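DOMAIN: structural biology
WANTED: fold as tokens
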Amino acid sequence: MNPKATILIHVVPRARHTGVVGRHGDAIRIRVAAPPVDGAANEELVRHIADRLKVPRRAVTIAQGLTGRRKTVTVEGLTTTQVVKQLIADS
């Protein structure tokens, strides 16, 4: 059976650079260099997570919170522990 990670993300749009900042309560805080218009920030978030975790973009899905800053993101093929460790490392 293929693992599936579920993580909470706190997004900060319109940043200078896209990157993981650290923790925000129980969520991981990620700044994205895109405005929250026409899904641009969501696309940048998915791209960044996929690139950082070295998984295909189709493996990363925003399950909840498409229009808010707080999002629930799922990642196919990795466990939640693996995802958190890889995103927080070097942040």
